[in-house]
């Protein structure tokens, strides 16, 4: 949708200030000066946030494009609009943010360590960040990270969580050490089944003993060439909101498997049971269910590969042009663990489809660029729908796919509106 | 002249015991002034941050661990289109309770962007109690649920794809 939704959180407009507001802000400025603390959004700060501001987290919107949609500001959850994702390699300013807790502060990268432990390591081992950078061969991959709940807003009845539309996905370039090289260096036992991560983000309720999120992947995914412990995004240090100084990156799987601010990995001899691994978190029913059905936890299975999907990134929805124009449209397509085999577009709601040019991925698990030209013989209102098909022959549905209790995996076709004169 | 007869700051000789007496008096006076200023500053801070508008029955419990998790900032009364400007929450029965109880830990946007029935909201409260450290809401729970179910309940079904809406038309240049 081109315009901010009605439930979207937008930047607060400056309200007329009374004396008390002025007084309060002056005092805050003084406090800020005295403590040397960086007050988040000091200029537009909602009054209700004043007392907690001194313990507030870093400003996640710093360096982000102001057109990004803020779904929540505590914790920070921010998504891109489809046209902002036009680049083959997503720049920092357009990368979505999905946080479960508060962004950690005062990270000391020079003293950062990663400990690898758990019942299935030969012996616990701790590496400094510099050890990872200097003692292992670095690799760089473009990897699609998509929130498991991307598209949740399309489900009915509504499901709990961030009401993402299309933009909780990106494909950027990560550099780091292969997790498999690291595990080989540590030495793992034959019974190793799962990897779990721990990071240093802080719980919303201030309870420091409570892990915010601790997910992971099976050993088979951990051992893939493209599964990294990365310290660099698009050739720079990873931005703080995206996991500085160290992030586990598992392309093609729900982005929650790519843990941020990582200081500990555990090698488990069973499915990892950390925070948000169990219950109904990041899980789908094992069988199709009716909209609104209750599904017992034991009938829910962990999401692994994400489904086939595509975006139209040019033009932005709402384009108006003359009938004489040849419209060049383009976008990306991706398919979790698989490759995309075909992308088609329709301007008649799926009655007929046109096959698009499609590039090979830069590497496995990177999104692929598609493009085509369209001519319109008759003026009027059109919707352009895009549909990708993966190497297994599975396509995106045009309608919203099967409802599920947590609103995951909505990979319905993306569409834009255009007007031809 | 002995050291102790000099003014410690200017190092000038102090003329006589009377002057010394005066100096001591001045010191006490200045200290007193500073103390008065501190009290005044505290009072100003108090009035700036406290509107005195806590409704009776708003406090959930006296337990200090709960107290610290509440949003203790008083409601500033700024309301536009029936919504509290600071949080975006609809101002109505139960608003103050919801604002105080819920937005200490998380953004009000978490509430605003979701839609559930009363049972659905109850399930979210139970989930927060089981996994996120939310306390027993006691007699406040029905009031909170009433508020949420009244203002943030599911809208009519959307079908499997609704018409595109809010399209911002623009001239395509190239």
TrEMBL record, chain A:
Gene3D superfamilies: 2.60.40.650, Oxidoreductase, molybdopterin-binding domain (3.90.420.10). Residues 103-274 form the Oxidoreductase molybdopterin-binding domain. Residues 302-420 form the Moybdenum cofactor oxidoreductase dimerisation domain. Residues 1-20 are annotated as: Disordered. InterPro entries: Ig_E-set (IPR014756), MoCF_OxRdtse_dimer (IPR005066), Mopterin_OxRdtase_euk (IPR008335), OxRdtase_Mopterin-bd_dom (IPR000572), OxRdtase_Mopterin-bd_sf (IPR036374). Its cofactor is Mo-molybdopterin. It comes from the Bacteria. SUPFAM superfamilies: E set domains, Oxidoreductase molybdopterin-binding domain. Residues 10-20 have a biased composition (Basic and acidic residues). Keywords: Metal-binding, Molybdenum, Oxidoreductase. PANTHER family: SULFITE OXIDASE, MITOCHONDRIAL, SULFITE REDUCTASE. This is Sulfite oxidase. It comes from Algoriphagus aestuariicola.
From TrEMBL, chain B:
The chain crosses the membrane at residues 21-50. InterPro entries: Cyt_c-like_dom_sf (IPR036909). It comes from the Bacteria. Keywords: Membrane, Transmembrane, Transmembrane helix. This is Monoheme cytochrome C. The lineage of its organism: Bacteria, Pseudomonadati, Bacteroidota, Cytophagia, Cytophagales.
């Amino acid at each position: 949708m081109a315009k901010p939704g009605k439930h979207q959180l937008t930047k607060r407009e400056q309200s007329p200030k009374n004396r008390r507001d002025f007084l309060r802000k002056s005092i805050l400025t003084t406090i800020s000066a005295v403590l040397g603390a960086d007050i988040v959004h000091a200029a537009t700060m909602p009054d209700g946030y004043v007392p907690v501001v001194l313990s507030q987290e870093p400003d996640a919107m710093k360096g982000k494009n102001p057109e990004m949609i803020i779904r929540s500001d505590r914790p920070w959850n921010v998504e891109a609009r489809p046209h902002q994702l036009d680049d083959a390699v997503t720049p920092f300013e357009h990368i979505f943010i999905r946080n479960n807790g508060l962004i950690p502060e005062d990270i000391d990268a020079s003293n950062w360590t990663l400990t690898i432990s758990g019942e299935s390591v030969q012996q616990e081992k701790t590496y400094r960040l510099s050890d990872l950078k200097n003692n292992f061969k670095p690799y760089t991959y473009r990897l699609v990270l998509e929130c498991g709940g991307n598209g949740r807003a399309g489900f009915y009845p509504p499901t709990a969580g961030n009401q993402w539309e299309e933009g909780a996905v990106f494909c950027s370039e990560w550099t780091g050490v292969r997790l498999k090289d690291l595990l080989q260096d540590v030495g793992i036992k034959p019974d190793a089944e799962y990897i779990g991560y721990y990071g240093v983000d802080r719980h919303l309720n201030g309870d420091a003993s409570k892990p915010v999120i601790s997910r992971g992947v099976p050993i088979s995914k951990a051992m893939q060439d493209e599964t990294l412990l990365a310290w660099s995004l698009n050739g720079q240090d990873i931005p703080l909101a995206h996991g500085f100084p160290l992030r586990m990156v598992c392309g093609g799987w729900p982005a929650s498997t790519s843990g941020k601010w990582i200081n500990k990995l555990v090698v488990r001899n069973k499915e990892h049971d950390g925070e948000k691994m169990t219950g109904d978190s990041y899980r789908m029913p094992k069988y199709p269910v009716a909209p609104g059905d209750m599904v017992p936890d034991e009938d829910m299975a962990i999401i692994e590969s994400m489904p086939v999907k595509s975006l139209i990134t040019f033009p932005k929805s709402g384009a108006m042009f003359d009938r004489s124009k040849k419209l060049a449209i383009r976008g990306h397509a991706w398919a979790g663990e698989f490759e995309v085999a075909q992308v088609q577009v329709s301007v008649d709601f799926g009655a007929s489809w046109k096959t698009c040019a499609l590039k090979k991925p830069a590497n496995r698990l990177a999104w692929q660029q598609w493009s085509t030209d369209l001519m319109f013989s008759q003026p009027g209102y059109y919707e352009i729908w895009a549909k990708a098909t993966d190497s297994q022959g599975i396509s995106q549905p045009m309608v919203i796919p099967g409802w599920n209790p947590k609103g995951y995996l909505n990979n319905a076709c993306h569409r834009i509106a255009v007007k031809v004169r | 002249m002995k050291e102790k007869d000099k003014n410690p700051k200017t190092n000038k000789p102090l003329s006589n015991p009377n002057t010394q007496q005066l100096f001591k008096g001045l010191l006490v006076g200045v200290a007193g002034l500073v103390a008065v200023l501190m009290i005044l500053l505290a009072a100003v801070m108090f009035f700036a941050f406290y509107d005195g508008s806590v409704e009776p029955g708003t406090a959930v419990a006296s337990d200090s661990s709960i107290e610290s998790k509440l949003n203790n900032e008083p409601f500033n009364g700024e309301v536009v289109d029936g919504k509290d400007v600071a949080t975006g929450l609809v101002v109505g029965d139960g608003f103050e309770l919801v604002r105080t109880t819920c937005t200490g830990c998380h953004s009000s946007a978490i509430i605003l962007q979701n839609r559930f029935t009363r049972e659905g909201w109850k399930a979210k409260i139970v989930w927060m109690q089981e996994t996120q450290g939310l306390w027993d809401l006691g007699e406040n729970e029905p009031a909170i649920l009433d508020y949420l179910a009244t203002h943030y309940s599911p809208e009519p079904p959307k079908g499997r794809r609704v018409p595109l809406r809010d399209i911002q038309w623009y001239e395509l240049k190239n």
